[in-house]
TrEMBL record, chain A:
GO terms for cellular component: GINS complex. This is DNA replication complex GINS protein PSF3. GO terms for biological process: mitotic DNA replication initiation. Keywords: DNA replication, Nucleus. The keyword Cytoplasm does not apply. The GINS complex plays an essential role in the initiation of DNA replication. Required for correct functioning of the GINS complex, a complex that plays an essential role in the initiation of DNA replication, and progression of DNA replication forks. GINS complex is a core component of CDC45-MCM-GINS (CMG) helicase, the molecular machine that unwinds template DNA during replication, and around which the replisome is built. InterPro entries: GINS_A, GINS_bundle-like_dom_sf, GINS_Psf3, GINS_Psf3_sf, PSF3_N. Its main location: nucleus. CDD domains: GINS_A_psf3 (cd11713), GINS_B_Psf3 (cd21693). Component of the GINS complex. PANTHER family: DNA REPLICATION COMPLEX GINS PROTEIN PSF3 (PTHR22768:SF0). Pfam families: PSF3_N, Sld5.
TrEMBL record, chain B:
This is DNA replication complex GINS protein SLD5. The lineage of its organism: Eukaryota, Metazoa, Ecdysozoa, Arthropoda, Hexapoda. It comes from Bemisia tabaci. The GINS complex plays an essential role in the initiation of DNA replication. Keywords: DNA replication, Nucleus. GO terms for biological process: DNA-templated DNA replication; double-strand break repair via break-induced replication.
TrEMBL record, chain C:
Component of the GINS complex. Residues 182-195 have a biased composition (Polar residues). Residues 169-195 are annotated as: Disordered. This is DNA replication complex GINS protein PSF2. Belongs to the GINS2/PSF2 family. Its main location: nucleus.
Length: 198, 241, 195
């Protein structure tokens, strides 16, 4: 897993901030009509309700007249928070919110009213589901799962853990031969000569 | 290359008075020298061990650690001497294979060590150069060649990035310093084995709040955040495992 | 880390062999001196060399003392009784035994029994490890002590354990640790729409 801090080019971050939130426009916004499939003009009319990506909303919320109000996305509303605290393991994050933890982190740090609760919920949910991801990754008999109830972060954890387990099992049963030089290196010299001759 | 040349080269490289605890001539021991006692002098086996430990530490930490070029260079000289010795042996001598096996092992460790460091340099170029500039000459983390590599890598990257940025709309045609800075996560969890007994190590709980004191004893092993022990790793009090 | 790399480290250990050849010289390896070799007389060499010589049929390997059924059964009992991890007879017991099974299987008496006991010990320790990992994750402590676990055992829970701890620790934080409030998406947003 990446051992660097979140940064500008972080793909995971970028993808996660594309998760959507319900927004209600309180004022007209010129030029953004294309965001609304039901728009008649080039502008968004007041009282329009749209589901927009977080990164767009973040910019709109910075405007001095704050033309939108936002609600928490479905996966993070009070109902779901209760579901998670009851039994997080049954939730299908693949369907509900693919970037649950990364996006949740963004929301938790966004200084919203519900941010502290979201933070607590994220930690508790992860801890609850850890056992599930752990057990699944140790069980290498079954086929690698193509899709499951995991969100992206859990899935990455699962994949890496499973790969490591497979390698360990292979090593235990068969042993690994000598560490070989990559064939690319062995062939490097040969390739160079060919280029020279041409 | 004869012993004297190698000696001069290593001393020049150090660019400072030879530390009395590292007897360079012993590092470049020839075939025929008798066994030497390994009390304080850094004999070849000790240097090899140090390199292996450095390799492990470098592999398991997110940030780049102080370089060990003194040892790597000395070991490299040792390898060259050994290869020279091998070439002088009759071709059916059983010793050839034995020496060669060991050389392959040592080469693997050294190249892996250097490769890991290069990967970190390529990933965190900007921050590494920034921090290196603030360190004193005695305390550099990058070797001479690594520093040059980092600088030219940075230059190439920036040139390339600017070429692309120029084609963007005006308000995104440049990136600020903080936007291009990529830093390692120093709070990642590591496994350690302690070489010393030490009190007074304070580790926060996972929420970053209450700290508790941990007592290290020789050979005790822990999992804990890297930044709590980064200094101990760098001064060899603990080993990442 | 790859198990092969841990095996690589394990191979440095010394083991006794009985050479089938003579060599009057001391071999000055970079990692230490070995030899001279007298046919029939035991000599200590690193495992990597022992394996190579054995494969070329130039020696026999002396099985380490700890690799016998009685000693290992005792260790297994100790491990069962103990709540924590007991010290293993060798820091790299699995790696060494695996290598010897592979190359010197013919010299190990009761090899199947030994294999079974070792597997039992490994399984026992691994299940202890898994149980304590689950407990550890649920708790809020930021540190755990794991004395007497071998490198291979520790590596078997990589990257899962450290990465999960990294995730939890990151979720718990309110901001990046050096006080940067701006999330990166803020960073992107402000530059994209700067007027």
């Amino acid at each position: 897993m990446k051992l660097c801090r979140s940064h500008y080019f972080d793909l995971e971050d970028i993808l996660a901030s594309h998760e959507t939130m319900p927004a209600t426009f309180t004022e007209e916004v010129k030029g953004l009509g294309f965001l609304d499939p039901g728009a008649v003009t080039d502008n968004i009319t007041p009282k329009t309700k749209l589901e927009l990506p977080f990164w767009i909303l973040q910019v709109l919320l910075q405007l001095p007249n704050k033309p939108v109000t936002v609600e928490l996305p479905k996966a993070f509303n009070a109902t779901h928070r209760d579901i998670f605290s009851a039994d997080a393991c049954i939730v299908d994050f693949n369907k509900l919110c693919k970037f649950f933890y990364t996006f949740g982190k963004i929301l938790a740090r966004a200084k919203l009213k519900e941010s502290p609760e979201i933070k607590k919920m994220l930690v508790e949910t992860f801890k609850q589901r850890f056992r599930y991801v752990f057990d699944l990754s140790q069980n290498v008999e079954t086929e690698k799962l193509a899709s499951d109830k995991m969100d992206r972060m859990e899935r990455e954890l699962y994949n890496e853990s499973r790969t490591a387990q497979v390698r360990l099992n292979q090593w235990m049963s068969v042993g690994i031969g000598t560490i070989q030089a990559a064939s690319m290196i062995v062939n490097h010299r040969k390739r160079k000569l060919t280029v020279f001759e041409l | 290359m004869c012993l004297e040349e190698a000696l001069v080269r290593v001393k020049k490289y150090l660019m400072m008075e030879t530390d009395s605890s590292i007897d360079i001539s012993r590092l470049l021991r020839d075939e025929d020298e008798e066994n030497i006692s390994d009390d304080e002098e850094f004999t070849a086996p000790i240097v090899l061990n140090l390199i292996e430990n450095a390799w492990l530490n470098e592999k398991l930490s997110a940030e780049i650690l102080p370089h060990k070029s003194i040892y790597v260079d000395a070991m490299y000289q040792q390898i060259l001497t050994m290869e020279d010795n091998i070439s002088k042996l009759p071709s059916d001598d059983i010793r050839i294979d034995i020496y060669q096996l060991e050389l392959d092992r040592i080469r693997y460790i050294i190249t892996s060590y250097l490769r890991i460091r290069l990967e970190k340099i390529e990933r965190f170029t900007k921050q590494i150069l920034q921090q290196e500039a603030q360190r004193s000459v005695d305390d550099q983390y990058l070797s001479f060649h690594e520093l040059q590599y980092a600088k030219s890598f940075q230059e190439l990257n920036e040139k390339h990035l600017n070429l692309v940025l120029k084609k963007m709309p005006a308000n995104v045609a440049s990136l600020s310093h903080s936007q291009t800075l990529i830093r390692p996560n120093l709070e990642h969890f590591v496994f350690i084995r302690s070489r010393v007994s030490q009190d007074g190590l304070f580790i926060p709980d996972i929420a970053g709040n209450e700290e508790r004191e941990v007592k290290l004893t020789e050979n005790s092993q822990f999992i804990l955040p890297y930044n709590s022990v980064s200094e101990l790793v760098k001064n060899n009090s603990v080993q990442l495992i | 880390m790859d198990p092969a790399e841990i095996e690589f480290l394990a191979e440095k250990q010394l083991i006794s062999i009985i050479p089938k050849f003579n060599l009057n010289h001391t071999i000055h390896l970079i990692s230490g001196d070995i030899g001279p070799f007298r046919s029939g007389i035991p000599v200590r060499v690193p495992i990597w060399l022992a394996i190579n010589l054995k494969q070329r049929q130039k020696c026999n390997i002396v099985v380490p003392e700890w690799m016998n059924v009685e000693t290992l059964e005792e260790r297994k009992e100790n491990e069962k009784q103990s709540e924590f991890f007991t010290k293993m007879p060798n820091e790299h017991y699995m790696e060494v035994s695996r290598m010897l099974f592979e190359t010197a299987g013919d010299e190990i008496q009761k090899i199947d029994e030994i294999r079974t006991v070792l597997k039992d010990i490994w399984d026992l320790r691994m299940s202890k490890l898994k149980a304590s990992i689950n407990k550890f994750i649920k708790s809020d402590t930021g540190i755990a002590q794991l004395d007497h676990l071998t490198q291979l055992e520790i590596n078997s829970v990589r990257p899962l354990l450290p990465d999960s701890l990294n995730i939890i620790s990151s979720l718990e934080k309110d901001q990046d640790s050096d006080g940067e409030d701006n999330s990166q998406s803020q960073n992107r947003a402000s530059s994209s729409f700067a007027q």
